Amino acid sequence: MKKALRYGWLILVLLFIYVPILVLAVYSFTEATTVGGSTGGFSFKNYVNLFADDEMRGMIFGTVALALICAAISTALATFGAIGAFYSKRVTKSLINNFNQIPVVNADIVTGFSICILLIVIMRVDKNSFIPLGLGHVVLTAPFVYLSILPKLKQMDNSLYEAALDLGATPAQALFKVVLPQLIPGIASGFMLAVTLSLDDYFVTTYTKPSTFDTISTYVVNATRGSQTETKTALWALSTLIFVLVIIFVAAMNIVSVRKRRSA
Amino acid sequence: MTKLRFSRKQLCIPYALFLILFVIAPLFVIVYYAFTDGEGKFSFANFANFFTSTNTLGTLFYSFGLAIVTTLVCLAIAYPTAYILARSNIRKKYVLLMLFVLPMWINFTLRITALKEILSLIEGNISRYPFFNSVVGMTYDFLPFMLLPLYTSLQKMDKSLLEAASDLGANRVTVFLRVTLPLSVPGIISGMTMVLLPSMTNYVVLDMLYNSDYIMGSLIGSYFAAYDWHNGSMISLVLLVIIFFVTLITNRFSDKDASARGGVL
Fold this sequence. Notes:
Chain A is mainly alpha-helical. Chain A has helices at about 1-25, 45-50, 55-85, 90-105, 110-120, 130-155, 160-165, 170-200, 205-210, 215-225, 230-264. In chain A, helix 1 (about 1-25) packs across helix 11, helix 2 (about 45-50) packs across helix 11 (about 230-265) and helix 3 (about 55-85) crosses helix 8. In chain B, about 75% of the residues lie in helices and about 0% in strands. Chain B is mainly α. Chain B is globular, with a radius of gyration of 23 Å. In chain B, helix 2 (about 45-50) packs across helix 12, helix 6 runs antiparallel to helix 9 and helix 11 packs antiparallel against helix 12 (about 230-255).
């Protein structure tokens, strides 16, 4: 009985989480214009529209490109930042740690708005140059990369770096051949986190983006304001595709980590 | 030829400069704009605007109310879930946890689109219950962020303490109330901050659900749309002060769990 109650609760919560996504997924394969409305039968119409429309293809491509580029910059910047800070004096280190914490606890909207004021209003950087947008996303994501590298630095065996230097490596060689390889798990998870944060962002994007550029988030929000049913239902298809990709990705990650644990 | 020499410490210089230029400087700019007028002269007008307008004050209280209710609802759903997951002895419980947090990786605007369709189907006209729907929308959006820190703190709890308590004669309710619950306070606090702050500012959820907005974030949005940087900065400053105090309180309770936001990977 107790057990039934427990599983019942879990199932209830899962239903809350998944019913909207799954119902939308089912309707994305029909001609329906509202969920619960007449379906008009099975159709790939929404999927065809999603990829036939230049604007939507460009928006999806732009979102992914932005996320990957910004995550790469964030990762490079924050990885060296974390290594440097870790070996700095205590004052410097805690200063950088605290500065790093600001975008983490700050509301995204305040981050976005303040960068907009500094770069676009005061420094008059052209929005259309993508510089405010790119910088905004780096500010948003780099601190999280920093945080995922810090624990790996603590675990690292410091004597390896010293040994490399004693054996005649230059600091640069020791850094790239000894220190960085040990940080790879932290760098990888930091990069992934940066990509997901950038993909999900609405607020920083909306305050810093060029007026003609849209990411998935800003595009979807604009689409819900409009009355274009064709755009709306094409987004159902997009939602379903992303859902499937996320499942595949998470499953793959799980399989990799299980394999790793077995071989270890 | 001199070789490029550097010590490891110097590697942090680019990042430190970056933080000063694009994290610290914007905050000073916000403060400056909040207390100046259009001609750049010092002014309390924006400050006075905020604290005398019934609109902004009402919005502040509405945001607080909405954020607190959302946080409590998230806690009420996530705590039992995290507890059951952490205590269950099924194999592959990690996979089960993944199932609960997986939607986190789907773009939130798309998830809210899905929720909106379902709510419209159930309620007919969703603008009839704005507060209720806002809470549902925010809960739907932020639940994983409450669940993860709770699960982490319940999972890593020293189980021998629980056994000791029951060996010493405590019944299950007492064990929960006097051992499990106090030990999970860091998780509760960090989950609550993960939900409280976004639900005060994420006006997109409301905007998408019924084209209306009454929370702090939307004020910034409307000042932004009107190019009113000074009043917008004032709202940002108020939010910054709130965030500062919330962080101050939570730092006293939470253990340093860096990976709170989306850190399963």
